Amino acid sequence: MDPEVLEFDIGLGGGGSSARDGDDDANIGLDVDEDMADSPAPSILASNSNGGGFGGGGSEIYLPEGDQMDLEPYEGMEFESEEAAKAFYNSYARRVGFSTRVSSSRRSRRDGAIIQRQFVCAKEGFRNLNEKRTKDREIKRPRTITRVGCKASLSVKMQDSGKWVVSGFVREHNHELVPPDQVHCLRSHRQISGPAKTLIDTLQAAGMGPRRIMSALIKEYGGISKVGFTEVDCRNYMRNNRQRSLEGDIQLLLDYLRQMQAENPNFFYAVQGDEDQALMSNVFWADPKSRMNYTYFGDTVTFDTTYRSNRYRLPFAPFTGVNHHGQPVLFGCAFLINESEASFIWLFKTWLIAMSGRPPVSITTDHDAVIRSAVMQVFPETRHRFCKWHIFKKCQEKLSQVFLKHPTFEADFHKCVNLPESIEEFESCWLSLVDRYELRDHEWLQIIYNDRRQWVPVYLRDTFFAEMSITQRSDSMNSYFDGFVNASTNLNQFFKLYEKALESRNEKEVKADYGTMNTSPALKTPSPMEKQASELYTRKLFARFQEELVGTLTFMASKSDDDGDIITYQVAKFGEDHKAYYVKFNVLEMKATCSCQMFEFSGLLCRHVLAVFRVTNVLTLPSHYILKRWTRNAKSSVILEERASDVYTNYLESHTVRYNTLRHEAFKFVEEGSKSLNTYNVALGALQEAVKRVALAAKNEGRTRMVNGRVMGDSARDRANSIKHRVPSQPLSEDDMDKKIRELTNELEFANRKCEVYRANLLSVLKDIEDHKLQLSIKVQNIKISMKDGL
């Protein structure tokens, strides 16, 4: 009787996991679908439709049914093909509880065809520790030892008839076999079936990650063992899917960018490496408006890598900032395929070129060691901050068990980070927190503590980040594309949503401009400073300044130290001296710094400095405390630092400086003069003499005039008059000469006043022109938006 001929066919379709995820036998990826074992077979001989094998293509699996499934290999057993022998041995291995792989082969000397194969247990042999390959490099994550010298194997060789026959079979293993409920974890039995792939594709398109997809599959199939693969396999399949789709997506992106640059030469884009080989390269682009926005608001930048996370299908990373209304503004976008340190360095350098080579004062990124290294190399002078809100979000994942066990931990953690006013207070609070919840040895908390200088607010207050509040997340920190790009967005949809986001953000800025230019805020105090701020700042920024100004009414400022040039004030609420802030005020330079460092961090003066200004009679904001980037003219090309109202403002400022300087000197005079009776008498005499001289100077003020910025006394006027107005034939008397001098001086004063009025009027006209230009721009934008809505 002829021996039975058995034929098997298998198919993996790329569902196997990568070599780094498990056993050493990475070249084997076989699976046999258990569900097919129960279906009836038309005959003992099954056809081999596609010629699959271990790690083979996407063909169906054909298995003999009934008693044939219980067959054990034996010498002389024949198969129609090598692939059928592989499939049979692997199905046998699945029933017994071990994994298989291809070990060796022998080729024909005549034509090089394979004529002999050996299939072995995956634990056959021992790992080859090649010293030459490993001695020069450190292995960071050594793989577990899986080979233990097992001898179980199946050898087959090809007959002259073309069939394959078993020439050797070793049944015994030298290790424990895997029970049926764990056999799906073995490499050669892990396969993603066609229906499973379809379900994964559907759920991935909906934005679900590997963990949630595996949960759905386990529920669908009735258990992990019936799914037939692991979460690692699912993750790798999704990654490969994403990689394949990105190749086509990159081409779409490049076509779009080329078209945009053809329409506007100021549109900037760049590809890492050769553009002709760019299908798997990183890409950066910035439209003309983004590049122009950076010239106005490029002092602080956020590099948002939110869209790299698994729940998004886009490796998309925008550069954003904050405009004069506190709204997010775009500075360019990147499409990242390769996320190595070299790629981030290329991206940051390319972005810097597009932004005219001017680095920002500060940059905020996600908490990422690779990004940090790239920032240090490209922006060595820029202050780098990790996004605190991303760390808080990651905290929920890394400390989920702590959150469940201690419901109060999250609130205490936020307070520890946000509320301390000094570094010492934070350090004390942190130690108390980790001790209270027994987390001193928690690995992730130790990592973020070591990086505390780059995300804890108390370490960052001396640098400008354009944030109005340290404890609350501002709208500007939300992603520019929130509400447009979401978990299910692919690149085909991205272009329209990208342009829609740009239009929406532009429309919001236009509306904010319109509100600032055409409405006046309600003033809450009679302070000239509040009126001045209402005319300078945008509406949103003025509201924030007004909040600080009104807040000064609850604070008391008292002098605590005076070293001559600088006076230190203690500022606190009544009865709360233990919560005091300290303001150092240089009277002569009109400069103040507060221990809260709000101006350095946000660009607006805090209520503590404003309280000191109130008690020192500073009536208006000094010009160096008005950042143009927060004003209504932030994007103006005409410098309107001096407006018609500046005549009054300059008067107030100069009067304040004189008043404060005299008072400061007078206090020192009084302190020195009162030390003894002798110094008192000298000081009193000097003071009485000073009073007489000041009175005389005030009386003669009309006779002392300013000419070209210099004071001219009587003798100077005499010399000037004798040169310019001497008439030899008719010498003037002294009275006539004085009269003539007074007339000429009055004429000069009148001319100076006229020049000042003309100057003020000219500046007023320039301001009106600039305002009119801005209003026309707003109207044009509104017309464009309405036309698009109509279409």
TrEMBL record:
**Where on the tree of life does the source sit, at the highest rank?**
Eukaryota
GO CC entries: nucleus
Annotated region (Disordered) at 1-61
A single GO molecular function term of this UniProt record: zinc ion binding
Q: Specify residue ranges for compositional bias: Acidic residues.
A: 22-37
Question: What single Pfam family name could you report for this chain, choosing any that match?
Answer: SWIM
Kindly give the InterPro entries that the UniProt entry links to this protein: FAR1_DNA_bnd_dom, FHY3/FAR1, MULE_transposase_dom, Znf_PMZ, Znf_SWIM
Where is this chain compositionally biased, Gly residues type? 50-59
Localization in the cell: Nucleus
UniProt keyword terms in alphabetical order: Coiled coil, Metal-binding, Nucleus, Zinc, Zinc-finger
The UniProt entry's coiled-coil ranges are 734-761
All copies of domain SWIM-type, residue ranges: 581-617
Q: Which GO terms describe its biological process?
A: regulation of DNA-templated transcription
Q: What does this protein do?
A: Putative transcription activator involved in regulating light control of development.
Spell out the family assignment given in the record's similarity comment: Belongs to the FHY3/FAR1 family.
What is the protein name stated in its UniProt record? Protein FAR1-RELATED SEQUENCE
